[in-house]
Design goal:
With about 240 residues, the chain is α+β, with helices and mostly antiparallel strands. It folds into 2 domains: about 10-90, Phosphorylase Kinase, domain 1 (2-Layer Sandwich), CATH 3.30.200; about 95-240, Transferase(Phosphotransferase) domain 1 (Transferase(Phosphotransferase), domain 1), CATH 1.10.510.10. Helices cover about 30% and strands about 20% of the residues. It is built from 6 helices and 12 strands. The chain has helices at about 55-65, 95-105, 110-130, 185-190, 195-215, 225-240, and strands at about 10, 15-20, 25-35, 40-45, 75-80, 85-90, 130-135, 140-145, 155, 160-165, 165, 170. A 6-stranded antiparallel sheet has the order 1-2-3-4-6-5, with helices on one face. A two-stranded antiparallel ribbon has the order 7-10. A hairpin with a 5-residue loop joins strand 3 (about 25-35) and strand 4. The radius of gyration is 18 Å and the shape is globular.
């Protein structure tokens, strides 16, 4: 459910200016830091939905900001709540890879994809080194920076991310529901296996192929239910 009754000021400091976009669970608004006058991104998620992802995402992004500011990880500024919504304030970014792809006719040149792949590898390496896996790798979850950082690629949206290592690696599990986006999900993820680092890497591989080709062999596969659709995608992936 999309957030409603968005506050005009968040955290007593960040003024809401205008709506920028929305996803399945949240909205993103342009904000202004009343102290520094800098533009920021304000992500808003309603309490009137079953799944609350924003607090979890905020905690991970804040953790990734600890020690030093890593290139390609947005700055975290604030998390708070009111009676209706949750709010997270972070660094304002530019277009997603998907949006940029659409302005380029639906495909990137191989050289462009190689440059993108180099930055993606560094982002996922940092995330994994901090003990987390992303679990929703897709073109919409990578964004370019703005101004002098327009050539920097950022990894975003940690709502489905999970800690895979804390003193020891998480245990293997089976018969799990799919977490993430079926188009880019690994074969094991579609089979219901507990995800780990290799599943992020496999998803990146599918995404890079998509950026070059503009589609994947299983793009557009349908099913009467989500489970049937996932089964059809899995069959196509294992036979391709």
């Amino acid at each position: 459910m999309i957030a409603s009754k968005v506050a005009s000021k968040v955290g007593g400091r960040y003024d809401i200016v205008r709506h920028l976009g929305e996803g399945r669970f949240s909205q993103v608004w342009l904000g202004i830091d009343s102290t520094t006058q800098e533009h920021v991104a304000v992500k808003v998620e309603s309490f009137q939905q079953d799944n609350y992802l924003l607090q979890h995402e905020s905690e991970i992004l804040k953790e990734l900001n600890v020690q030093r500011q890593e290139q390609g990880i947005a700055k975290w500024f604030y998390y708070g709540e009111d009676n209706v919504n949750q709010y997270m304030v972070s660094e304002l970014l530019g277009k997603t890879i998907q949006a940029q792809l659409e302005t380029c006719g639906g495909k990137f040149h191989v050289t462009t994809v190689l440059l993108i792949a180099e930055q993606i590898q560094l982002r996922i390496q940092y995330l994994h080194a901090r003990g987390f896996i992303h679990r929703d790798i897709k073109p919409e979850n990578f964004m370019f920076g703005v101004a002098h950082k327009a050539h920097h690629l950022y990894l975003i949206d940690f709502g489905l991310a999970k800690q895979y290592f804390d003193l020891q690696h998480i245990n293997m599990k089976n018969n799990l529901s799919l977490t993430g986006t079926a188009r880019y999900a690994s074969i094991n993820a579609l089979r219901g296996c507990e995800q780990s680092r290799r599943d992020d890497l496999e998803a990146i591989g599918y995404m890079l192929i998509y950026l070059i080709r503009g589609s994947l062999p299983w793009s557009g596969l349908a099913g009467n239910t989500a489970e049937e659709k996932y089964k059809n995608i899995l069959a196509k992936k294992t036979s391709s």
